[in-house]
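Render this sequence as a predicted structure.
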Amino acid sequence: MIKEINFIYKGNKGYCTSLLYNLRRSGMLFSYAVVLTGGIATGKSSTVQLFLEDGFFVIDADKVAHKMLDIHKNKVSDLFGEEYIIDGSVNRKKLGGLIFSTPHEKKRLEELLHPLIFNEIERLAKEQDRLKKPYIIDIPLFFETKRYPIKDSIVVYTPENLQLERLMRRDSSTKDEAQARIDSQLSIEKKRVLSTYIIDNSQGLRELQREYVKVKNQILQDFSKEQPC
């Protein structure tokens, strides 16, 4: 069903807006969700803060993942060893070092976490869908994983050369280190093409705020449309 909706949307920008409205009214999961994504060091965190300040409910996939890690720390210990638990919590830095250097261990962790993360995000999304107003789900690797059947997405965009500069400055990393991290994700240019909305963060905070306001207003307008075909 999601694929059919996306086909209609992509194929005809002037498609029947009442179709989506009726689907939202039917209570379909993620009906009022808008994904916020981007690339590393493109300014996603700053944009999330703007949505929060405007009263939007934000589901943070990374925070959900951290919560699931700690709730299921005994399973993490069983899989990887007690040395990955410190003071009753998962040592995320140490575990991260393991999974990023060992693809097999990364797969084992993903098999444990991904269903748990999805179920928790699904639970939170159902609560928000009942309110019948748009909300944000912050998913850094939304386009890469393709796990969430959500039609609308925002990409926080920065050209890759600026993305590289910001990442090197932020993390005090070398050019090669920063480029390797950027290359581990889908390119920001491809994400830009796939997105519903774009927030350009290539200037500065003041311009980011202006871009945010434009996109926020467009989202509110799009979700309020109820015109018949």
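Summary. The CA atoms of residues 33 and 135 lie 5 Å apart. The chain has a mean pLDDT of 87.
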